[in-house]
Write a structure and sequence with these properties.
The protein has 214 residues and is α+β, with helices and mostly antiparallel strands. It has three helices and eleven strands. The strands form two sheets. Strands 1-9-6-11-4-3-2 form a seven-stranded antiparallel beta sheet, with helices on one face. The chain starts with 15 loop residues before the first helix and ends with a strand. 35% of the residues are buried. It binds N-oxalylglycine (OGA) and manganese (II) ion. The site of N-oxalylglycine has 10 residues, from strand 10 and strand 11.
Amino acid sequence: MALPLLSDAGGGDDDVFHAIAATLAARGWCETPHFLDAPTVEALALDVEAARAAGRFRAAGVGRGRRWELRPEVRTDQVLWLGDRQPGAAQQAYLRDLERLRLAINEVTRLGLFEFEGHFAVYPPGSYYRKHHDQFRDVGTREVSCVLYLNPHWDAAWGGALRLFLGEGGAEPHVDIVPSGGKLVTFLTREFYHEVCTTHRDRYSLTGWFRRRD
Ligand code: OGA
Ligand code: MN
């Protein structure tokens, strides 16, 4: 699973972006609490609530293009894709950080990340996303999954953990990651099956993928 490090990789671990890139290269996944500052997290959470109140979220499906379908036995979250409107200041700040992360990963690995696609997600109480993989059947351009959590406070007793399976082919063991506000979880998309455990509170996130060129 470890990625080959470029022999001439510069940068080092002296900023959070290169530290994440190095951890991804060495281990395939990385949990970074407080990646985003609290005011920006709160502003993004307010954006989510406003968009939700305006009815802009849609039930999430699985698959893509003609294969897209609702599968409530698989996932019951609601999503709002980025990009249909001018991003607000908080979203722009996060996208700037992601751009720095993309460049750091490209310095440290051979992934050749080219662009980012993403959506906000709301998991209402009782919802989940069963064990899955983030790659579509027919296209495999997603290289790194990035999940940013937006609830300013989260109690582990509320459920909603991200369960990441660390074994080969989605096998055990797993780690459960608490979706605390401002935390960023990154992982190599192809390498990890994962699941969103049933949540007992509204759970907000901004999930996306760095892709390579088609
Ligand atoms: C996804 C996903 C994880 C999370 O949207 O594909 O796995 O913790 N999200 O929200
Ligand atoms: Mn996923």
